[in-house]
Design a protein that fits this description.
Length: 569
């Protein structure tokens, strides 16, 4: 890869520590950052982040552990805990202190919280060409391109020992680019990001307008075929499909709303306009104000498919242009409800979701990691034709520990395994009884008893293995999960654990057949884990016991065909 390769020799955090040490010699205190008081909020500053990236703009507020800035690309919220340093700097966006919007005046004028009332003039797109292999082009859904990709790009560039110049406007409002510059201020790397609607990233990939497509779903048959014809590559393979992070849609309400959980069908009725007052779902006598993203957004596509079904979001729903704007507005309006990516919940509160058969799912990180949460989703990067070493290098970076740390810092959910709690074990056992059939087969009753024995003194590992339809072959995420579990179990603090490898099936066929299939899948996962040095205590299949999706749900078979890991001492 030449000088484009990062490899293990570069760690962003080590690099930042060295920079901090050099800055300290110049009298700058970077370890205890004190942000400007309210009277000084009008200056342009660059915040250096602990993940190696940076944000440049005008600070407009500091509250609730969050620093909000107006940048040349719009409003940006940064957790205070992630700020490593601050310095005055011209952000290059043509925005002076005098032109910075005053948030208090904006709200006094009646604009909704989170509304951007002024956009800074854009910097022109870069015109100078870099040598081949030093420019990367990405295109796809804004849900990834708004926050996660910029942070990863900043960390990636900093990891090379280059300075991120700051994100600049490209040739259109949806295009932005970042440059990595050397000590002389000369650009050495450039990353272009274009935010598009669902599916458009695959079109850009096939037309070679992008090296990497960003998506919140796998390509459909037509999209995959188009790329196959154009590039001769199969996108849905390990070589081209990369799961960047996990996430999910949260249904959010005002933090003071007493409603804690809603059934999926209640949410559907609210967004369709059938339920219009909170008192119909156990809340106060207050009209419901529905907020949603525009129809072309990836989150709207998922919500419509998985919640609305054949129904449409009501015409009087307020349509907003960003997930952050929905979260801000819901947090400010007691009667409101909306949906947003889990990373954008902010000061709003996420509701527990209740499936039709009574299974309840908190909107939490662990539930997302297990992929059991009904509205979970994967954030994908799809690589096109090989030939750009920078694309391959960036994909290696995002899957590294440094990249995983950036994913977490940005508010998304990394693929790294974590252990559940005793409380989760009890909650899961209760959910299993809620979903039990009304007239169970005696073999089901025995399997349920066996399941209880296997997990009641154990802790669930978030790693869950799912399979390609109609086979015992692990899907793309499951194949990578084997390595992550092996690494987790090799850590000294986890040497005390042994794995119970437990298989589950869908509800198709006789129960004896279900249990047999689930056990074969558990045995296959156990075999591969043993090959990687994992100590296995138990391997067992339970068939259609403890489902995580109800029979009538369209995605139930795929969700319920799984292998779970429970750790015991």
């Amino acid at each position: 890869m030449g000088d484009a390769t990062i490899g293990p020799r570069v760690k962003v955090r080590e690099l930042m520590n060295k920079r901090h040490a050099r800055a300290s010699l110049k009298g700058l205190c970077l370890t205890a950052v004190v942000l400007a008081p309210a009277a000084a909020l009008a200056e342009e500053v660059r915040l250096t982040l602990r993940n190696g990236g940076s944000v440049c703009g005008v600070i407009t507020s500091e509250a609730g552990g969050t620093v909000t800035l107006t940048t040349p690309q719009g409003s940006r919220a940064v957790p205070s805990s992630q700020v490593a340093a601050r310095r005055a700097e011209d952000c290059g966006g043509g925005q002076s202190a005098a032109a910075a919007p005053n948030r208090a005046a904006t709200q006094a004028a009646g604009a909704p919280a989170g509304t951007q009332t002024a956009q800074a003039p854009a910097r022109p797109a870069a015109s100078n060409q870099l040598p081949a292999g030093r420019e990367l082009k990405m295109a796809g859904v804004a849900d990834i391109g708004e926050l996660l990709i910029p942070d990863l790009v900043d960390g990636y560039i900093a990891g090379m020992g280059l300075r991120p110049r700051g994100w600049s406007q490209g040739a259109s409002p949806e295009q932005r680019f970042q440059e990595g510059r050397d000590g002389r201020g000369q650009p050495q790397r450039r990353v272009n990001v274009e935010r598009m609607g669902p599916g458009d990233g695959f079109v850009a990939l096939g037309e070679r307008r992008a090296d990497i497509a960003m998506s919140t779903r796998a390509p459909n048959e037509a999209e995959a075929s188009q790329v196959q014809r154009a590039l001769g590559v199969d996108l849905v393979t390990n070589a081209h499909e990369h799961v960047l992070a996990l996430g999910g849609l949260a249904v959010i309400v005002h933090p003071d709303n007493p409603v804690q959980r809603l059934k999926i069908e209640q949410i559907r009725d609210i967004f369709a306009g059938t339920i219009t007052n909170w008192n119909a779902v156990g809340g106060p006598n207050r009209p419901i104000r529905v907020m949603a993203r525009e129809a072309a957004a990836g989150s709207t596509e998922q919500f419509t498919a998985e919640v609305m079904g054949q129904r449409q979001i009501a015409a009087n729903a307020e349509r907003l242009t960003s997930s952050a704007q929905i979260a801000n507005n819901v947090a400010a309006e007691p009667g409101s409800i909306g949906f947003t990516g889990m990373a954008f919940v902010g000061r709003a509160r996420a509701l527990n979701l209740v499936a039709s058969c009574g299974i309840e799912f908190p909107a939490g990180t662990f539930e997302i990691k297990t992929q059991d949460y009904p509205l979970e989703r994967r954030y994908y990067l799809y690589a096109g034709a090989k030939g750009n070493p920078m694309a391959e290098d960036f994909l290696r970076y995002v899957s590294s520990p440094a990249g995983s740390e950036v994913v977490t810092d940005a508010g998304y959910i990394s693929l790294q395994p974590v252990l559940g709690t005793r409380e989760y074990t009890q909650f899961r056992l209760l959910d299993a009884t809620r979903a039990a059939p009304t007239a169970p087969d005696p073999r089901y009753t025995q399997a349920m008893a066996d399941y209880s024995i296997s997990v009641r003194q154990a802790l669930r590992l978030s790693s869950t293995f799912r399979f390609d339809s109609g086979s015992q072959a692990l899907d793309v995420l499951g194949q990578g999960e084997l390595e992550r579990v092996a690494e987790f179990m090799k850590r000294p603090e986890n040497a005390k654990y042994k794995a119970n490898v437990l298989g589950f099936s869908d509800n198709i066929g006789a129960f004896g057949q279900q249990r047999s299939v689930s056990e074969r899948r558990a045995q296959e996962v156990a075999r591969q884990l043993k090959q990687r040095g994992v100590t296995v205590n138990q391997v067992q299949g339970f068939g259609y016991v403890a489902p995580v999706a109800c029979e009538e749900d369209a995605n139930a078979p795929a969700k319920n065909r799984r292998v779970e890991l429970w750790l015991t001492q």
